[in-house]
Each structure stands twice: as structure tokens, then as C-alpha cells.
Protein 1
Amino acid sequence: MFSVTCVAPVNIALIKYSTHILGGKRNEDLILPINDSVSMTLRTDELCAETTITASESFYSNKMWLNGEEVPFEENTRILRCLNEVHRLAICAGSQKIPLSWKIHVKSFNNFPTAAGLASSAAGYACLVYSLACLYGIPVNDQLTTVARQGSGSACRSLYGGFVQWHRGNLDSGCDSVAKQVVSSKFWPNMHLIILVVNDQRKNTGSTLGMQRSVQTSQLIQHRADKVVPERVNQLKTAIHKHDFDTFAKITMKDSNQFHAIAMDTYPPCVYMNETSHSIVSFVHDFNELMGSSLIAYTFDAGPNACLYVLEENIPKLIYAINKAFPNDEESADYLRGIPLSNLDIQSKTKDNIFREKMELLKIQQKNTLKYIIHTKVGEGPRLLRANAR
Ligand code: DP6
């Protein structure tokens, strides 16, 4: 019996990949996108998937448990595809670590609530594929990212740390649709992320409804894929290489806006952001204007929660401003989760009269529109925690 336990990170796109819901895939089964995307990988301390895979000669069938509940394995084409592809890579690499005929049991957990609406599939599939690679003794390389991609598109970017580009590729086989690291997490270590988890009373019908609309796609999406994204990817990579936060922020916010404009241009529209999301957008623009430059950048995925990119040195200011504009009854550590923030840091801002006066100009929202806040930062790719042979 062999077993491995691994963790894999979440990644948040700066330049978005559009799923088939918005008509963004050129091949549905292989998950081939119509444009490149760029993301930042988050450290695993706050958000990650942890997966244990055991392979044994005595197992009768493949099985999988997700957060403690058994989920169908043999019926899940995405999981089967990942397993078969890893087997294929093991054969190509001549790896004979364990017999491919042995059945496997997969147990996977997310260390964050699925209800938070954060992209759990990217971390989950990256962890599955990485753990399989460890089990069968194959390296993390371009080809392994093509396997993770076939589990969930954005999962291919979670196989690397730092900033990562998923190249759309041109081949019908998809073997050139790979993720590559742009720079490691050490290149811009003070890049942090504040996630505002919003209180959302509405049931999220967006993606379910969206599926039914997959054939009807936006007329804007092709222009985005052909013209806008290629330019933005180059500009963003240059901004990252130069540590140019101002340009980084503008591109990120514009791309989030365009992604959601295309969701709205899908007919009938896919609505992912809610009223609170829009008030966060206004808050960020107001804050940046008051500060005289872009100190924060928002981005929204297929849900209402906001991800705010911010440099470490500007976090006290941002948290002060959030507490001001989005008042909340909750004051416990449960409200501000993740990397701890010294109260002294925030209090020092209350003593800065010029800053405080500026913050008085922020529009104050209704109480308790935010559920909680997660403070995290750029991080590394998946890693092996344990390996056992019995
Ligand atoms: C909005 O990777 O979850 O987060 O490939 O169908 O599994 P599938 O979709 P998924 O889509 C995520 C899309 C996004 C933008 C992004 O991460 O690029």
C-alpha cells in the first residue's frame, strides 16, 4: 500500500479565462480556452486543498471523498480524465513506482468553506493531479499542467507559485495549452490579497443558469480574445517585472470589469456581482482617488466576493478604510481572518490627521454587508506533505 498527502494553492486571475458559460472555450472536453490568462497563486496557510491518495493491490474500486463525503468517481469524467492522463505520462516516463492497475482512494479537503464562493476547483484539481504525480513518480512540468487543465481550466495555474500565465496554445490536441511561471513568489513578496466575503442572501443561480446558455455567446468575447487580452497580458507582465503596482492595478481592474461586461453581454445575462460587489468597486476607485494613485486593485471571479490586491505597506490604510466604509458589528478574530494585523498599525492611521480627514469623504455603506475578511498573500505551488509505503 502506498499513500501520499499533498497541498495545493488557490490562484486568483488578474487576466481572466472565460469558461464555456461565456463561450470562452474552443474545446469543451479538453478545456481549451480562447485566450491566455494570468494569475497570482496564494499561499496555502489561508486557502488550500489537501489531498491524500492511497493506492493498494487490495482495493476493489476507485473511490473519492470530498470534505468527508463520498462523491462518485467512475462517473466523473473530469476526474477519470486526470487519472488516465497521469497514467499515460507515467507510461511515457517509464515510471514503475506502483502498478497502474492498483485502485486508488482519494480523500480531499478544502481548508476554507466552499460557501465562501472562492475558486475551490482550481486548488482541488491541482492537488489531485499533483498528488497523482507524486504517487506515480512523475515531475511537475508543462505536460502535467495540461492534465490539471482537463480537471478544471484554472487548475493548471495552481501547479506553480508566484505569477503564472496559462498560454491558450494553438494545437487541437491541447498539448501546447500549458501554464508557465512568470516570476516566483519571491519576486514580489509584499504583494498581498484582502478577500472581502460578502453577505449574499441570493442563491447563486448564476453558473447553473449560465450552463444552459452556453451555446449563446457574447459578441464582445471574440474582440476581447483577439485584441484586448494579448495586449493586456504583455502590459501586465511588464508591470510585474518592473514592480509597477499602478499599472498592475489598472489592468487588473479593467480586466475584471471586462470579464463581467461579457457575462452581462451573454444572452440572457450571467450576473455574478451583487450590489455589495458594486459598492466595493466604487469604494476602491474613491480610495485610490483620495490617495492620489492606485493603491488597491479589485478583481471579481464568477461570484460576488471581492479580491483586493494591495502591497503590504498599504494594508493598515486599506483596513482602516474598509472598517470605515463597511461598518460591521462583528469584531472578533473570526471577522478578520488570515495573516494577523497588528492593531497598532491600524491605530497609527487614526492618528494621521490628513489621512483621517480624507477617509471622512468615503461613502459609508449599510452595516454588515461583509461577512468576513481574509488576509493572505502571494505564495508557492503545491507540495508533498507525507509519503508512506506499507
Ligand atoms: C472566472 O476553471 O472554474 O475564475 O474550466 O469550467 O472548470 P472550468 O472553469 P474554472 O473557471 C474559472 C474562471 C474564472 C476566471 C479565471 O480564474 O481565469
Protein 2
Amino acid sequence: MGREEVDPFGEQELRSSLKTEQLGKTIYLYPSLESTNLLAKQLAEKGEKHGALVISETQTKGQGRLGRSWHSPPGGLWFSLILRPDFSKLMPQHLTFIAGLAVVQACSKIIHSVSLRWPNDLYVENKKLGGILTESRAKGDRFEYFIMGIGLNVNLAENQLPEELKPLATSLYILKKEQISRAALLGDILLHWEKILNHYPHHGFAPIVNSWKKHADFLGAFVKVDTPAGIIKGTAVDLSPSGALMIQDQSGLIHEISCGDVRLLSIVRTPHS
Ligand code: BTN
């Protein structure tokens, strides 16, 4: 397939690729939306069920983490899932790890070198391939739903990236030099995701965080972490059992960070990688 022939990505292709029982059973598919997360939130507010999928060929106001915008031209996989898991059995902060693991497992069928960067990024060779935007709604101390937005640069050509993103971002198409079926990839992502969600109540978070760490590109590296409390530089030594990032600074002190953005300053690897 040449770049000009965009891979077919209609409801029919999607339905025949989905092998899940709950995720993606209801599909809202659009040629263009402001943001799939935004529509998913509106639908969830009206009571839309667990597993409903909102997907769009392009987004005009794609949202990234920390108020950033997300470049969403045609050819990418831009989607959001509404999740209403049984919160008595699942820690909400584990959902982003579950999503990342599902995406990396599905992508490894296409390319081996996709890695996870804490807490929610997908990278290949230090260039960003995708990201996860997790949003939630709670009433008092009770969660009502989660919106899990995934942006994955699938069939984006180099010339679809703005100049400022070219040194920082990549796509599966740029790496593989061939078009990837987004319907098949989405089907795989949702299948891995559902399996992990079903496994979790019986086996807990430990197997998930352990698998997640095997795909991490930052463990053992010297990193700079931008946190709400300021910047911390040090070696990323591990993730805690709950998924917090553990950084050892130059004085030997360990910082346990639960929210932030990681930048690699070196790529020294440890046996984790
Ligand atoms: C990040 O900042 O890395 C997270 C990016 C998440 C982008 C996706 S694209 C689909 C969904 N809809 C949005 O508006 N954002 C997420």
C-alpha cells in the first residue's frame, strides 16, 4: 500500500477486527471531532456504558496531558474508551499502566522496539509514538467513570508532522515504511486490554507492573522529571509496587514521584531493559 492509499478504516473493518466481549461493543466513529475524549465524557455523563469506544479520523482540538494540544491529522489512531470497572476491585491509578501495556503488547507484533515511558508515553528510539490521556469523574470519594484517550501515530508520513515535532516524534509508517491496518491494530489493543482487565481482579497489579517494567526505556537512565513540586534530576531506579517512579538523586536520596513528565538525559541501561 502506498501512502496515498489510506488504509480502510470504517465501521465494517473495525467490527470485523474486534474480538472483545466488552470493549468496543458500542462504537462512535467520526471523520472529524474536536476531541474523542471530549465526546466520550459527554456520552459518559449521559450514562454510556463501560467499554464504549469513540474514534475519529482527525481531531481539531486533540488534547494531550498537562493542557497540551495533540496533533491529530488523518492516518493516526485517535480514540477514547469509557471505562466503568468495578472500583472495589481495581485501583484507578493502575488504569494508565493497563492501557500502556495493552498498547505496547499490540504494537510489538508490528515493531519490537516500542517502549513505555512513565507514566503514559510510548516511544521508539527516543521519539514519541503515542500517549495516553486519562481523565475521570468522581462524586465524593466514588469514581463514576474513566475516559482513557489513546493517541498513536500509525500511518502518519514525515510531512504530516509539524517542523517542531519532526525531531521529537515518529510513526509506525515512518519506521516500517509501510501502511499498517489501524482496524487490526485497534482490535489487538482492545483484546490485550480486556485480557489484562479481566486478569487483574484475580492476580492484582504486580504482574502488570512487572510486565510494564520490561518494556520501560527509562529505568537505569539519568532523567529529569518535571513534577508539580518542581524538577528532580537523578537515576530512575525502579517503580514502586503501586507504580510510583523512584528516582535516586546525586546525594543518594530516593524520591517517590506519583505525577510528572520524564525526560531522558542519558540512556544508561540496567538489567530491567
Ligand atoms: C499525551 O499528552 O501524551 C497524551 C495524548 C493523548 C492523545 C489522545 S488522541 C485521542 C484522545 N483524544 C484526545 O483529545 N486526546 C487523546
